[in-house]
UniProtKB/TrEMBL annotation:
UniProt KW Membrane keyword: yes
Listed name of the protein: Uncharacterized protein
Signal peptide range: 1-23
Superkingdom of origin organism: Bacteria
Alphabetic keyword roster: Membrane, Signal, Transmembrane, Transmembrane helix
Residues annotated as transmembrane: 26-43, 55-73, 79-100, 112-130, 173-192, 199-217, 223-240, 252-273
Organism per entry: Nesterenkonia jeotgali
Amino acid sequence: MKYIPVAASALLAAMALALASWAGAFAMTLVVCGLSILIALGWPQLMGVSARRSLSAVIAGAGVISALGAGVVGSASDLFFWSSVALAFGVMSVFLIQVLRGTGRPHRLESTIGACAGVLIATTGAGWVAGLRYPVELAEASGAEGARGLLAVRGLLFEDTALLAVTGASGELAVVTLAAGTLIVATLLAVIPLPNMWAMLLVVVGSTAAALGMTLAWGELTLLFAGTLGLIAGLLLGSFRRFLITHGPPQGVLSGIAVGAAPIAAMGALTYFTERLLLV
């Protein structure tokens, strides 16, 4: 029962991202902004730090600025620029708050480290917006028609074989849709009460299989790329589950919501940089 807010938050966040990926970049930006605010509300409570309101404002501001920046830039090379800026200013703001609190305040070190971690998590959520826009920007830059759907993995000898080629007769499965759908499956598998070793194996294998299955059933992504993305999602959720079980459930509903939303937001950056590395 104590883990219900965590699981519900992760599942609803992944579902919202999957739906937003169909609605477009504007809807995705709104969802990521909301995700950043949810993380900001519960993160200081989770860390047990002081100055919660001011630190929540910094975390939320960093996440919102990152998402908005990724949504408005006009070049693929600048999609993560504002995330870097928000991260830098967010960390500086955290230190400034600690200075303004004065000397002799309790838990200063814990408050600083915890708030900086929250800023980092919030800014990674912009990867969902950047990941949704990146294939479009790439298609416009190259001038290739249909480049949004025909995404190929480069640098592999066997990428043109039947197994690794584009799979899907007419559908188009966006990368972020695939990532969000895989997270939904991984979250459902993670809540199954199993020993850590078996749970980790189930989440990793299950999320990889889910990514491959969604690509085979409907989409124009290579199986190799889909398997890589599914493996990344499984490792992230499986590792997070193990860490959570080891340290116990968070105290408070807001803390549970922040904990559940955190790995979903972090997957945004992993999805975006996987695109940048593997897609042409």
